Amino acid sequence: MFIDLHMHTTASDGAATIEEMAQSARRRGYRFLGITDHSQSLAVANGLNHDRLLAQRAELAAASRKIGIPLLAGAEVEVLSDGSLDYSDAVLVLHRGRIVYERYGGCMGEHVLHGAMSVTKSITGLIGEVLVAEGRIDETALMGDLIPELADSAFGDATVRQVLDMTTALDYSEDYADPDADVWTYAQAGSPLPPPDGYEGPRSYFGFLETVRKDGTHGEAFGYLTINTDAMGWLISRTTGMSVADWLAENVWTRSGTEREAFYTVDSIGTPFAGGGFNATLRDYARLGVVLANDGAHPYAKGTQIVPRDFLIEATDWKRAPKPFHPGIATPVYGYGYQFWLYPGETRRFMMLGVFGQSMFVDPAQKLVIVQTAANAAAEAGGTSLASERDAFWRGVLQYDAKR
Questions:
Q1: What domains, with CATH codes, occur in the chain?
Q2: What is the band of 179 on the pLDDT scale with cuts at 50, 70, 90?
Q3: Residues 234, 205: Cα–Cα separation, whole Å
Q4: Which of 100, 175, 293, 396 is most buried by a 10 A CB count?
């Protein structure tokens, strides 16, 4: 055996410290060791709250450097009696226009805006697809022809469709666990704060996109990378003369019955972060979900179509997608299309997912919307226990509704 991904330390109910376990694993020839102490609700096992979990991340990094073995950070997250996850900030379940469950924790409240991270990608993709459906953007056009500033970059000879589908061939790493990954250079380029001493790199999202180099052939493989969505955000702005924030506000947000304003984080020149910077309240996320669950129509204003129906159905039904985007092929579980995640099964269901635990699950047939906001201590990948438990929560709600 070369790896163990479920180990407890003395931080919860284990018998050894992190360093002791790392030393033992190294002696046994392990290549990796995953530390997954209990989460906060299991008090009998001294489960870790948010602050202790964050502190443990730093301890793991230090021990990994000292002992010389990669230590993977995780948690055995409790599923609470109400079906929510231990580290969620808020959860809302809306069924046929009625809130049937709503819970807030931590710093969250009914009127607090929460970051969406990559849920934003689905929103930006939706805007792009609306412009394609309206004929304002030609999906076969080359990005370099539409945005001359990108002509010499990796995006220059990529089509709009390849950017929307994330089948571009880019020399770019988005591994959050790697401190040297390109995603951190991108984050610095998009920072609105003064650059650190000696920094001479790009000072905006768009400036960074111009520097991206090509690696391979566009259109051959699906690769989930945030910079595709920000390139799409640039194209939306160039096509409409409006930022993604202004276009969304005018054409979708204010027409969806939302109660509060929303906002995007921006870079030093005011460019919205189209790949991950959206913020809104839990209920307003759910209101957007209701529009999506009604195939783009406003549920309470008859005849008001906010998002083109045919496009939305095409985008969110994996059976209409090319085979490489089917569930189990695009990823081990979910499919992908038009920057939405596609749920497996015969019924059309789809999701919007964010890296630190944010999500929106939509079932149009049942008019069901499940929204979760979270700020987990570590970036979430599809194979983590958190993702599995969230999926179990969705399945539980679906089964309950089916029995009613």
A1: 3-73 (no CATH), 79-112+281-404 (3.40.710.10), 113-275 (3.40.710.10)
A2: confident
A3: 9
A4: 293
